[in-house]
Amino acid sequence: MEFPTTRGRLTPNRPLNDLTWLRVGGPADALFQPADLGDLKDFLKSLSPEIAVFPMGVGSNLIVRDGGIRAVVIRMGRGFNDVTIEGNRVTAGVAALDSIVARKAAAAGVDLTFLRTIPGAIGGAVRMNAGCYGSYVADHFVSAQAITRAGEEVTLTADDLNFQYRQTDLPEGWVITQATFEGPAGDPEELEARMAAQLKKRDETQPTKDRTAGSTFRNPAGFSSTGKADDTHELKAWKVIDDAGMRGATIGGAQMSPKHSNFLVNTGDATAHDLESLGEEVRKKVFQNSQIELVWEIMRVGEPAQD
Q1: What angle is formed at CA 222 by the lines to CA 123 and CA 232, rounded to 5 degrees?
Q2: Interval 34-48: pLDDT, tens
Q3: What is the pTM of this model?
């Protein structure tokens, strides 16, 4: 397979298990880490259109199957993680961690506190319309910059992305490079205190010390937990998993967390096959029990291992 010359780092047949939070997955055909925006544009422009491209963030919401990915995985790092703030607008590079963006915004008196407990980086947050406590990326989104599969730079509006619960219409192979958000004004100390309370609540209720990829399935209700006193649980993913008797269920090294049953855990030696098989078993049992069809929130990509 022919790859263009780059100024960044291009590694053929690069295993991806150490780049995902679940620590599973086979190799990509190549891993490309662009030096800068120009390097990314030139690479995509020169890369054969027949070669697939898969943009990858910090791997917080991802199962790479054991056979790996037949694509060039593009992973952005330094040079794509700047955060700038003008008035109540915050512009963040695709590789900036959600938690860092929330904290920098709060220090400047801009309320994007909902991002504080969301795992991962800004690119994934935009692509998945991440949200919690009743706020979503879509509520604060102004615009994003992206590079098309042909290497052209474009500006994306909310209409272009068509935000929905945990999904957008980002075209295949397009790479988001930065996004701009708008947040209401707030007192920095109050915003910091709110985020500290959110973190405390998260650590009390979620298996944050375990190897997970965040929420495994979307809530059947079609929205995130609000965190408010009147929040209802009937159509929460964890509740229908509990009702189906699958809290703590295991296959191989994979387990549905006993602490929060919508978290899929690699207990140490799970394969991607173990994790995905357990998720599918949960979906089957939930459907048998309540006729609710759970939808994966974790993205699963690549091919199974060859026998």
Answers
A1: 120
A2: 999 999 999 999 999
A3: 0.91
